[in-house]
Amino acid sequence: MPVKIGNFTLNSRVYVPPMAGVTDLVFRSIVRQIDPGCLMSTEMVSSRALLARPESRIMDLGEAEHPIGIQIFGHEPDVMAHAAQLAEKRGADFVDINMGCPVPKITKGKDGCALMKEPELAEEIIKTVKSAVSIPVTVKFRLGWDDTSRNCVSFGEMAEGAGASMVTVHGRTRQQLYSGKADWSHIALVKKALTIPVFGNGDVFSPEAAMQMLEITNCDGVAVARGSLGNPWLIPSITRYLDEGVLSDAPSTLDRLITAYEHASALVEYKGARVGINESRRHMINYTKGISGAAPFRNRLTQITSKKDAAEILAELAFMSEGSTARENFLLAVEQNDLKYGEHPSEGKHDRKGSIKSPVNVVAVAPVAVP
Q1: Fewest CB atoms less than 10 Å from the CB: which of 88, 89, 197, 318?
Q2: Does residue 351 form part of some domain?
Q3: Is 158 within any annotated ligand binding site?
């Protein structure tokens, strides 16, 4: 069933929410290739930082990646409103407000999940942002700050009343971080209390878990975060299972290794060798999880300094897992990938900018003075 979020209709019940250091343009492009219709959002970005640097590449959006949201965080209503306007000018289909991040460096500044302790301020933020943009405003939050203050239902009602067009609820408190088991029953209470779409989040690591969450919560969709790390195929497999009741075959080891290299290569092209290689290490480690005997190779991947290093290690892993034919096919895929990009002009150097320009013409935005 289509899900209506403000002025646009979503034909998917799967949402890939913001993940810091993960849901950048490169990761989203990989997901879009295999599940074009899912809902996605950028990494979360500080509203105050956006005002200082409105050209931030965190907000780079691809021409074909809609529907797409930009998530902002902060605790100053006017600053948040200005940031939301920048997000709209950059082409976002919706603005998502982070009121659920549990990380101490975020919450100690009254941002993220700390706002669940100040619902009046949270309400002012939502109302101010809503009045500043013409696109839908959505909110992500948790069950509450801790077990003694599970205020997710009243918080959700407040968000809807303040103008939110959708909410995403993670089934843990801030105190839990990501430990223990997500409590889907409280997500169900939020869904029952609201009339706007509700997406459930937490412990969705398989198509069966996604279906079970929808059955328990009656949510409009599922938000799949950590389960997609190193496994973007989980997104289309959930979509297919929810729509058709069919379980998809898992990707082969060779497919996983090829995608791991392509992910690393694209990061180098987009962000430059130094940043791209540094960020690619954790992604390649995630892609190799679950491959029998891969632990020593993961240790080596933490030390790579170039795409060549990555290709050599992954080729050895392909040979160890599936034999010489897999290794040859992997190296052929590497060659084809490198021909697509051409030799990176700064391979192995400590550049910062990368060689790929922003995939779309970024709307010129005049710097905004930070209040």
Answers
A1: 89
A2: no
A3: no
